[in-house]
Write a structure and sequence with these properties.
The complex is a heterodimer of chains A (357) and B (293). The longest helix of chain A is centred in the N-terminal third of the chain and has 28 residues. Chain A has 357 residues and is mainly alpha-helical. In chain A, α3 packs parallel to α5, α6 runs antiparallel to α9 and α7 packs across α9. Chain B contains 11 helices and 4 strands, in the order ααααβββααααβααα. In chain B, α9 packs across α10. The longest helix of chain B is centred in the first third of the chain and has 30 residues. The termini of chain B are far apart. The chains are: A mainly alpha (357), B mainly alpha (293).
């Protein structure tokens, strides 16, 4: 058996992660080309990409940084609506769709990252469940505030109001982008599956590189033992904040991608349940396991569609599957059994090697 | 006068939050888990009372007792089937399981009672109270809610501080292993805690639906989140904390709606929560835990 160096092993592991995404993309393109993709599944492709980015970015907070966030959908919401505003604002000046999409994703990421900073500075002083509740509260505030916003574009620029559409004072030439509880309407569907896959790959590159960098090791040191990390001179606030902001910015980009896939977007879509849904992806995929997040996000987004055979019972089946997976994956006896099987195979392969020599 | 009427409705809403928050905080204190399914137990309690009064013609008080009984059994059952096997698992695994249970209850309710909201008839049939020559009207539901909350907090404090099972609860929440060594049946104590919390949830459910008479499978979700917030607000794990946290949250919500903005009331509630946590990172009455290196 050839020995692999840890660095090499990591390289291979990362390559497999990228390869899974690319192979999945090619396979789906082939399926789509040969007409074997149902229309409901085709409609899910961009949301799947958005949810993968959400799950990977949340895994950065939950798995790598080790802090529970229950408001990740809040960042998604910020990215979604700022992305929509940018894409509609540039409609007259930039005609190329992909360019507007790129601008929307970038602005979405920057705005969400900025709020990640604003929330992160005070919130990261808190620990455990208290941090979780602040992120939850933040998500609810974002939902509530966006629900009351009226935004329009007039000849002289952006206008924002919190009371009603008339107070925007746009007149004939302006366009209304956001209508309070009705959300953003008339959004250009700029997002495509290809763009989604590229965003997923960029996210992977950012997160995997961060995790394996000096900063990444510092972040994990803070997670594993805060006091020990601090005592060797790691600035806790700085590294926590770095991870949190990157996580928020990626969620913002995911939100922009998600929003630009639909003609109407409402703030209610990005509520507590969405945050929880993404958290479920992260936990089921394995905390800290980036590849697991990708697979869990993709499978669980499609699962309710696949459970259509159960009809009315599908969400009930989803809940039961969720509970059973948690119970079996944390069962001590099953864990022992798995460990025994693995050690048996390792012993037998070692024995074979000994015989060869 | 309007101020006084806002005060009463704030106290009444706060009392409902407090009763729910007590369930959250007791379970957290003993099992160290966030029971996200708690909000949905409230909803089941509401439906039980609804079924008993509307379909079976039971008197209101009997329907409340039925709701309490069903929720108690449900709470203990959930604990035995879903949470007990995970006692040594990481806390996130338990959290996700609780979310699974929450989805399960919501969708089960959806299948049984459909998503059409049901209009709930109040279980409190007394006439409303008129004070100051009719200038101030206090609904009987609000009054009963506040009184029920006070009675519950007194009863609970008595149970926790004076009875044997209360002593066991305090011991288990302090140190599970040491409690076990002292001959306390930890599993039984946790079950009793879930039973009490769920019975309280049933009462909260009935009172909530009496005050806001619309019942649907997602009725429990938002009050659940708010009450959870209230529990953290007061310092999670602390029983007086849950009580004061719940009352304050209700007051802030109603006064925020009345004097600042109706649409932004949730944002106001949660902003104040964040501010409080920044000044007191473990809630209003939470204990400060100093870390040993």
């Amino acid at each position: 058996m050839k020995m692999t160096k840890p660095g090499q092993k990591r390289l291979i592991s990362n390559a497999i992660t990228y390869a899974i995404v690319i192979v999945a993309y090619v396979l789906i393109q082939i399926l789509d080309g040969s007409g074997n993709l149902t229309s409901s599944l085709r409609g899910q492709l961009v949301p799947i990409c958005a949810y993968i980015v959400m799950a990977v970015s949340l895994n950065l907070t939950v798995g790598v940084l080790g802090e529970l966030s229950l408001g990740h959908a809040g960042f998604m919401s910020l990215g979604a609506f700022s992305g929509v505003i940018v894409s509609l604002g540039l409609r007259d000046t930039v005609s190329a769709g992909p360019l507007r999409l790129l601008a929307a994703l970038l602005v979405g990421a920057v705005i969400a990252g900025l709020f990640g900073f604003i929330v992160g500075v005070p919130a990261l002083r808190l620990r455990g469940d208290y941090l979780a509740i602040v992120t939850l509260a933040f998500g609810e505030i974002i939902k509530n505030v966006i629900n009351t916003l009226y935004v329009g574009i007039g000849p002289d620029g952006l206008r924002i109001s919190m009371s009603d559409q008339a107070s925007l004072g746009l007149g004939e030439s302006g366009t209304v982008i956001m209508r309070g509880p009705m959300g953003a309407v008339g959004v250009d569907k700029l997002a495509s599956f290809g763009a989604g896959v590229i965003l997923v790959l960029i996210t992977l590159a950012i997160v995997l590189n961060l995790v394996h960098s000096r900063s990444g090791r510092a972040i994990m040191a803070v997670r594993d033992n805060r006091i020990a990390a601090e005592s060797v001179g790691i600035s806790i606030t700085r590294y926590k904040l770095t991870a949190f902001i990157i996580s928020a910015a990626l969620a913002g980009a995911a939100g922009a991608l998600y929003a630009l896939n639909y003609s109407t977007v409402v703030a209610r879509k990005f509520d507590f349940n969405t945050s929880i849904l993404v958290l479920v992806f992260v936990v089921l995929g394995g905390i800290g396991n980036i590849r697991g997040s990708i697979i869990a996000a993709a499978v669980l987004t499609v699962l309710p569609e696949l459970l259509r055979a159960f009809n009315d019972y599908r969400m009930l089946a989803y809940a039961v599957i969720l509970i059973l997976v948690m119970l079996t994956s944390n069962n001590d006896r099953l864990k022992q059994l798995r460990w025994r099987i693995r050690s048996y195979f390792q012993h037998s392969s070692r024995r074979q090697e000994a015989e060869h020599e | 006068m309007t101020f006084l009427s806002y005060l009463v409705s704030g106290l009444s809403l706060g009392s409902i939050y407090a009763i729910i928050a007590l369930g959250y905080t007791m379970v957290y204190g003993i099992a160290k888990m966030l029971n996200f399914a708690h909000g949905d137990v409230i909803m089941i309690g509401g439906y039980m009372s609804f079924v008993a009064t509307a379909h079976m013609g039971w008197p209101p008080l009997a329907s409340v007792l039925l709701a309490m009984l069903v929720c108690t059994v449900l709470g203990v059952l959930i604990e035995q089937l879903a949470y007990k096997p995970l006692r040594t698992a990481p806390s996130l695994a338990v959290l996700i399981t609780a979310i699974g249970v929450s989805y399960f209850l919501q969708n089960a309710a959806l299948l049984i009672w459909s998503s059409n909201p049901k209009s709930f008839t109040s279980v409190v049939l007394l006439p409303s109270l008129k004070l100051f020559d009719g200038q101030l009207t206090i609904s009987s539901v609000a009054l009963v809610t506040i009184l029920a909350c006070v009675a519950i907090i007194i009863g609970l404090t008595f149970i926790i501080s004076k009875t044997k099972i209360g002593k066991a609860m305090r011991a288990v929440s302090e140190d599970k292993e040491a409690a076990q060594l002292m001959g306390i049946n930890v599993n039984q104590t946790i079950s009793v805690t879930f039973a009490i919390g769920s019975a309280l949830a049933a009462i909260a459910g009935v009172l909530l639906c009496s005050a806001y008479p619309i019942l649907s499978p997602t009725t429990g979700a938002m009050p659940g989140i708010k009450a959870f917030t209230a529990a953290v607000f007061g310092g999670i794990g602390s029983i007086p904390g849950a009580f004061w946290g719940g009352l304050l949250l209700g007051l802030i919500e109603i006064f925020g709606k009345a004097y600042i903005s109706t649409q932004l009331s949730d944002a106001i509630v949660f902003s104040i929560l964040i501010l409080v946590l920044l000044v007191r990172p473990t809630g209003l009455m939470g204990r400060k835990i100093s870390e040993k290196v």
